[in-house]
From TrEMBL:
This is chorismate mutase. PROSITE patterns: CHORISMATE_MUT_2. InterPro entries: Chorismate_II_sf, CM_dom_sf, CM_II_prokaryot. It comes from Brevundimonas vitisensis. Its EC number is 5.4.99.5. Pfam families: CM_2 (PF01817). It comes from the Bacteria.
Length: 256
């Protein structure tokens, strides 16, 4: 192939005079994207630096709780989603989960142990979306190993429900220091729950998670209830009501 033929197929577009109007318009758009990328990078690195400062402020004695503020994350996400174009909602949520996750990682990467004997890939995907790529996600074969990991303050556990193991009963006795702070799956009937040593004051606003003896028909308060699992007279339930974690009602946490 001759040199002139090659130039015909791949013309030299480095000189503005050789470009078509369409090519010049595309080059201008790409330059605009490059400028935005520079601004985004600068702002992201500034956010990480501020997250470092927040992490140092959190180093003041606050008990054994992990450095997670589900209430703060919930508020940030709600504010972002309110401003986002509905067409971009999914992308904005995923992006902000990553931003928040990498900010938390500046305070120490969070470990996440996942127990999901049924559809483990779906559980992993949900956990990855929630905690971001910065989190150290690993599978556990035994839900009690995941609970022990969380109870020792190393990170959090994501555990399937209705999977043949009533691990959630332990949230009323041997794992009573742990709190549920997130649900995964359908909003009305989540298929997995996240638990950790969460400061009760930092739990998200939303339905309370209750573990108690008896049915899930309610206690006469009129609060709406959703039964999630049962075992030998014990029930795992979502309740709309201002219940106190660790109180006599059997509240073990909350999900947004």
């Amino acid at each position: 192939m001759t040199s002139s033929s090659i130039q015909h197929l791949w013309p030299n577009t480095t000189e503005p005079g050789d470009q078509t109007a369409e090519q010049r318009a595309l080059a201008a758009l790409r330059q605009e994207i490059d400028q935005l990328d520079d601004e985004i990078l600068a702002l992201f690195q500034l956010r990480l630096a501020i997250a470092d400062r927040v992490g140092k402020a959190k180093d003041a004695p606050q008990g054994p709780h992990v450095k997670l503020r589900p209430d703060r994350e919930q508020a940030v996400m709600a504010r972002m989603m309110k401003q986002a174009d509905p067409a971009n909602a999914e992308a904005v949520e995923a992006l902000w989960r990553e931003i928040v996750g990498w900010g938390l990682a500046r305070q120490g990467r969070i470990g996440v142990r996942v127990w999901a004997p049924v559809e483990p890939t779906r559980a992993f995907d949900a956990a990855r979306l929630r905690f971001g790529a910065a989190a150290d996600l690993r599978a556990e074969r035994d839900p009690r190993a995941a609970l022990a990991f969380a109870a020792e303050g190393h990170g959090v556990a994501v555990l399937a429900i209705n999977a043949g193991d009533p691990w959630w009963r332990g949230l009323r006795d041997e794992w009573s220091t742990l709190s549920v702070f997130e649900g995964f799956g359908p909003s009305s009937t989540p298929t997995a729950l996240a638990v950790g040593l969460i400061d009760p004051a930092a739990l998200p606003k939303g339905r309370r998670v209750v573990v108690n003896v008896g049915g899930d028909a309610g206690d006469g308060s009129g609060a709406r209830r959703w039964g999630l699992d049962t075992h030998h007279g014990w029930t795992l339930t979502l309740v709309e009501g201002a219940l106190t974690p660790g109180g006599p009602e059997g509240c073990v946490g909350a999900i947004g």
